[in-house]
Amino acid sequence: MLTLLSVFNLLILCGTESSAISTIIINATVGDQVLFPVPVHCGSQYGVTFLLTSPVNAKLASWGFGTPHKHALYEKRLQIHQNASLALQKVQIYDTGLYEIHIDCYDTAVMETTKTKFDLQVFEPVSKPLITINCSTKNASLSCCVSKGTNVTLYWEIQPMSGPSDRIDDKAELVISPGHEQDKYTCVVQNPISNATSDLQTLEKCNDQSSTGFVLYISISTATVLLFGLVIIIFIYIAKLTTDDKGNNTAIEKWNEETCHLSDGAIEATYITRIRSS
Ligand SMILES: *[C@@H]1O[C@H](CO)[C@@H](O)[C@H](O)[C@H]1NC(C)=O
Ligand SMILES: *[C@@H]1O[C@H](CO)[C@@H](O)[C@H](O)[C@H]1NC(C)=O
Ligand SMILES: *[C@@H]1O[C@H](CO)[C@@H](O)[C@H](O)[C@H]1NC(C)=O
Ligand SMILES: *[C@@H]1O[C@H](CO)[C@@H](O)[C@H](O)[C@H]1NC(C)=O
Ligand SMILES: *[C@@H]1O[C@H](CO)[C@@H](O)[C@H](O)[C@H]1NC(C)=O
Ligand SMILES: *[C@@H]1O[C@H](CO)[C@@H](O)[C@H](O)[C@H]1NC(C)=O
């Protein structure tokens, strides 16, 4: 027993660690399954250790030589496949970190350890960005807002009236000096695993100095048309009821004179509806 132990100690002491340590970057999406390759180039005597080295140190699994072991917190998510790979399922942002796989070959004259390092980065995909316009100053400003996604970077694309589109700025707010109201703008957001583009946006509504007045005008016009229609419908309905229930109309409400007066310079309308139960 003692000899065996000392032989092992010797093996470990003499073990030549493979000098070529490569780091494999894995960019993963939240919820994905990540496969870590386990390239075993040993005979039948080998041991595999799967370690987390950053942000904390922990031995997550080991198998091959000795009793297989899995960290309690990874029991369900970590699967060892016979085809030389290790699967970590349903990765989350907190799985981002540095991992190592050590493969120890015991049946060579001198024990060899092969280390592979993994830099696992887990990202949440970006959602479609929304552009909001602020026309209240002389230079209009566009803001790009994205509600979902981690490590998001953004840039703007301008599509002039003529000519090719151009990538312009990478700030969340884009300030546009007067004279570019006809151009079209989009905001592109991205991270290593996804990207998304906003709808095309123009500054045409900033063109009109009184853009709010214009909106009000549209609203009032629409409201007028709707109200006019409603009044006609009610009038026809009441008239129909009156003819249908002649002499038996106690239930019919007595309407007093109703006056709608809309004044907006351009529109001036007065409707008078007078309905009486008889
Ligand atoms: C190993 O097997 C698993 C499931 O059986 C599969 O998802 C994975 O792609 C395989 N990996 C390789 C490297 O063949
Ligand atoms: C628009 O910009 C002006 C000047 O920068 C600012 O005072 C105002 O709060 C902004 N409005 C909105 C809705 O962001
Ligand atoms: C992603 O963001 C986190 C937190 O802001 C940061 O620590 C990490 O370095 C970023 N990763 C990349 C690839 O930019
Ligand atoms: C508007 O933009 C121009 C350049 O595009 C800049 O010189 C000027 O200071 C800006 N004005 C305001 C009020 O931001
Ligand atoms: C992972 O994302 C980084 C940027 O953070 C990029 O440089 C690298 O090429 C990506 N790697 C893979 C394998 O997608
Ligand atoms: C955006 O994502 C699509 C796939 O969804 C990809 O084909 C395209 O190259 C990406 N564009 C950029 C600028 O990253």
TrEMBL record:
SUPFAM superfamilies: Immunoglobulin. GO terms for cellular component: membrane. Residues 129-204 form the Ig-like domain. Residues 1-18 form the signal peptide. The chain crosses the membrane at residues 214-239. The keyword Signal applies. This is Ig-like domain-containing protein. It comes from Chiloscyllium punctatum (Brownbanded bambooshark).
